[in-house]
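INTERNAL AUDIT FORM
Audit reference: QA-55
Scope: verify that the stored structure record matches its stored sequence.
Auditor: D.O.
Record contents follow.
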Amino acid sequence: MTDPAVVVAQLTRHFGTHRALAGVSLQVRPGEMVALLGASGSGKSTLLRHVAGLQRADAHTHSRVEVLGDPVQAGGRLSPEARQVRARVAMIFQQFNLVDRLPVLTNVLAGCLHRMPAWRWALGRFPRHEQERAWAALCRVGIERCAHQRAGTLSGGQQQRAAISRALMQGAQVILADEPIASLDPEASRRVMELLAEVNREAGTTVLVSLHQVEYAFAYCPRTVALRAGEVVYDGPTRALDAGRLRALYGAQSDELLLPTGTPSAIETPPVPSVLQAA
């Protein structure tokens, strides 16, 4: 059997007295596209940051994270291999994390820094073949016309597509997307989710994406892991998450996970199950 792309075991994290993650365990197979679903404060972003090695679990616990067969952290300590693992893992943030004053192309080229000696990137001397790869990545997401604009002049949807281009440039085998459509309009949200689905389908890249609305999980992610108060409360086929089950899991918070009635949606295929529409 193929080894999991992501392994999380007994992941526990407190911020002061607040318990953000409570013994979270899950595995993601290579090539899966999995939704992390949950209301605000459920622990989605914290979980992704731990998988990326950007945060450490509570010390003196049995917490463990592995990505692509290599350890990221264990017992609240980062592994010596964590830096090498990050080169194969791309993190896409809700707020894009682009350098606003730099051209879009330069932001995308940042995805190849781990392949370059420090003097080259410090001087901005990117090899021609890397520049060609960056251009191809921009073409892939349809914003090549913006290549020489400052990143800060782009719309939110364009900036998120630039962030996906950077992940393509990096050659990431795993993409961790932290609410990448939370601040976007429906059409931009659809485009960003379609791009992530294309990368997953065509390149076999493993994608773990946190989402706030179950409709997008239905449209793009066959599997959903639902979090509530830092605990996994559901892990299984997205199609089984009907409105009744959402209410059983989240109570009044379930309304936060459904697009309000009458909200324009750019999601067209596959359709959201009628049980959700009727709820």
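Auditor finding: record pair retrieved intact. The chain has ten helices and eleven strands.
Action required: none
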